[in-house]
Structures are given as C-alpha cells and as structure tokens.
Amino acid sequence: GNSVTQMEGPVTLSEEAFLTINCTYTATGYPSLFWYVQYPGEGLQLLLKATKADDKGSNKGFEATYRKETTSFHLEKGSVQVSDSAVYFCALSTNQAGTALIFGKGTTLSVSS
Amino acid sequence: GAGVSQSPSNKVTEKGKDVELRCDPISGHTALYWYRQSLGQGLEFLIYFQGNSAPDKSGLPSDRFSAERTGGSVSTLTIQRTQQEDSAVYLCASSQQENTEAFFGQGTRLTVV
After folding, report:
1. Euclidean distance between CA atoms B54 and B31, whole angstroms
2. CA-to-CA distance for A78 and A87, rounded, in angstroms?
3. Using H for helix, E for strand and C for coil, what is the string for A32-53?
4. Which of A94, A99, A103 sits opposite B42 (nearest CB)?
5. In angstroms, what separates the C-alpha of A25 from chain B's closest C-alpha?
6. How far is it between the farthest Cα atoms of chain A?
7. For an interface test with B, which of A33, A49, A101 has the most B Cβ atoms less than 10 Å from its Cβ?
8. How far is CA B77 from the centre of its chain?
9. pLDDT tens across A40-67, in order?
C-alpha cells in the first residue's frame, strides 16, 4: 500500500547547523509530495511541495527534491534557527480519486542557541 | 471563511459520554479530512470526504466513531461512549479538490476523564 516513512526524532541541533530530515515513500503511480510544519501550539501548515519527479520545493530556506529513483523527498536547510524548532511531517498524495493525504509520523526538531 | 475553523477548541468529557466535533472548511473546498494526533504520535487518518460522500472511511478506529458532511461544507465527527484512549487532538483539513495541498484547522483537544 501507500506509505510515508520519516526518520525518527527528536533531532537536536545548534543554531546555524545543517539540517536533513529523511523521508521515503511507497506509492503507485505518480504521487505529489509535501512537507508540513507544526510550530509549538499551532496547527499544521504547508511548508513546501513538489508534484513531479526532479521538482524542488523550497520555502523559508528549506528545500526538498522529489527523487523518483530513490523514492525520497528529504528536507534540508543549510543553517537552522531557533525559530525552526517544530514538528515536521512528510506527506504524499497519490493523485488517485478517493484517497486521502498520507502522512509520516513526524520528526521533532529542537534548535538551541 | 478565511481558514478552516474547528469547534470547540477544547473539550473535556466524562468517560461514556458522546461528543460532537465540528469542522468548517474553507469555502469552496470540496475535499475534507479528519485526522487524530495523539501525544508523541503522528497523524492518524480517520476519514475523508469528497463533497458529501466518504470514499475512504478506513481510518475510523471503531464503530463508536462516525462522521457526516452536509451541503458539501460543514462536517461533524461524533464519538459515542467515549473512552480514555480517545483523548487526542482531532484535526480537520480541507483542500480545493482532492489530491491538492490541504489546509488545517487548529484542532480540537479532547480529554476524556
């Protein structure tokens, strides 16, 4: 079936460190891929997305590239800030009628100054 | 509306009571999703509506859970005979059409005592 696997957290980094959060997926066809972020005390919001292979989504200094050959959509940021501390969710849409978005379990990022 | 609205924001109920959670999606969004987020857990899919029909009810954890959507707009998630394990944050999301990015509400925090 369709699924999303994220690296286990928590991820603890110092400010200005490089961030990678791994995400791999299993899906039939040609899914769209998303990263959502949930800041403390807030709802989930879309961070970035990619709809086809080799697309790169980017926002707020975060990037992720849709790699069909490795079925991955890893999230990266070159220099994290304390304000990036949040829970990050990788998700996919199968683009098939009648199916919901599928989320990974989420990865907690904690950045200290 | 401007965003997805959920009510109540917090609900404390006694074990065995029934509860109703409401979701008001963004105007014009045809797809509506319910998810559950427990402490330390990821997003658990519950049910998905396309218009007023629910093509995917596979995530409802038991027959105590039901949901409906009327007029292609407001949705209600009902939990009968609540149990302590039902305590969680219930999240609603909507999207303009299925398989596009979803916009989330702030959630309803349900506590069963």
Report:
1. 10
2. 18
3. EEEEEEECCCCCEEEEEEECCC
4. A103
5. 16
6. 45
7. A101
8. 5
9. 888 899 999 999 999 999 999 999 999 9
Beta carbons of B107 and A43 less than 8 Å apart: yes
CA gap B68, B96 in Å, rounded: 19
Interface test with B, best of A37, A38, A44, A102 (most B CBs within 10 A): A44
Residues in chain A: 113
| Alpha-carbon gap: B47 to the closest alpha carbon of chain A (Å) | 8
B 27-46 → A contacts, CB under 8 A: 33, 35, 41-43, 45
Place of tokens 């800041």: A39
CA distance A11 to B65: 35
pLDDT in tens, chain B (113 residues): 579 999 999 999 999 999 999 999 999 999 999 999 987 677 888 999 988 888 888 889 999 999 999 888 999 999 999 999 999 999 999 998 766 788 999 999 999 99
Cα distance between residue A22 and residue A74, in whole Å: 5
In a 3-state reduction of DSSP, which class is residue A65? strand
CA-based nearest distance A73→chain B, Å: 16
DSSP code of A20?
A: E
* DSSP 8-state assignment for residue B67: E
pLDDT of residue A62: 98
Provide the Cα torsion A72, A78, A81, A83; round to 10°.
Answer: -40
